[in-house]
Amino acid sequence: MAFGRRRKDRAESGYVPGEQDTAQEAAGAADGPAQGPYDVADRPSEEGYVDLGALRIAATQGLALRLEVEEKTKRVVAVTLDLDGSSLQLQAFAAPKSETLWDEIRAQIVQSVSSQGGTADELEGRLGTELLARVPAQAQDGSKGYRVARFVGVDGPRWFLRGVFGGPAAMNPDAAGPLEEVFRNVVVVRGDAPLPPRDLLQLNLPRDASPLPKRGEESAKPEPPRRGPEITTIG
Q1: Which stretches does UniProt call biased (Low complexity) (predicted)?
Q2: What's phi and psi for 27, nearest 5 deg?
Q3: Which of 60, 74, 103, 165 is surrounded by the most beta carbons within 10 Å?
Q4: Single pTM value for the model
Q5: DSSP 128-190
C-alpha cells in the first residue's frame, strides 16, 4: 500500500480499540448520528460546553485545556485536553461540501511518520478508522524508544476534525475511554464564511474558565474544564 501504510488486525497490532455496537449503529443510521462529534446544527445549545470558537468542549470533571499558538502568526492552531494522565489534541479544518478528507490525511500522516523512521498501523476502532503511529524518540535516560500517538478523524458537513491521543490513551482502551467520550461530545462550529479546504477553523480563548469545585464540594451543574497554561507556543 502507498507510503508503507500497513493495515493490521487488532490482535497483531497489540492495541484493541473495542468492539463496535452494531445494533446501535443500525439504529443510528435511521435516526441520524448515534454519537458525535457533532455539527452545531445538531447541538446548537452552549449549555454545559466551553466555547472555543470553532470547537465547543463538553465540561468534564478534572479536564484541563491548553491552547497552542503558532509563533509566527500568533493564532491559536490547536487545543490539547489533558485528563487522567492522557492527552487529546484537537484541530478543526474547513472541508469541501461534497468530499471527505480523512482518507487523504491518513496517507499524509503515514508518509510523515515513515520519513521519520516510524510505523503507522491502520485499525478499525471505536472512533472509526484510526492510525496507531510509533515514532522514534529518545528517552530521558538517553536510550532509544518510540513515541506512540493514536490519530482519529471525522468528516463532517464542510468540516474535518482531527484528534491525536497521547499517553496511556494511545495504547490502553480502558485509559482511552474518558477522553474518547470527550471527543464524541465535541461540537464543531464551521461558520458560513467561505474558506479553502484544509484551512484551520478559528479557535479562541474560552469566554468563561471558572475553576472546578474543590475536592469534597458538590457542583449543581457541570463546570468548564480548568485552563492549563494560558498559551503553549509552537514553532
Answers
A1: 18-37
A2: -65, -40
A3: 165
A4: 0.77
A5: EEEEEEEEEEE-TTS-EEEEEEEEEEEEETTEEEEEEEEGGGGT-HHHHHHHHHHHHT-EE--
Span 149-163, average pLDDT:
97
- Whole-angstrom distance, CA of residue 167 vs CA of residue 91: 18
Phi, psi of 126 (to 5 degrees): -70, -20
Q: Provide CATH code, domain 2-9+37-210+219-234.
A: 3.40.1000
Residue 29 has pLDDT above 60, yes or no: no
pLDDT of amino acid 34: 57
pLDDT of residue 142: 82
User: What is the spatial distance between Cα 168 and Cα 177, in angstroms, rounded to a whole number?
Assistant: 11
Angle at 156 between CA 150 and CA 162, to 5 degrees: 20
Q: What is the DSSP letter of 53?
A: B
Q: Is the pLDDT at 24 greater than 80, yes or no?
A: no
Number of helices (H), then strands (E), in the chain: 4, 14
Q: Say yes or no to pLDDT of 5 above 60.
A: no
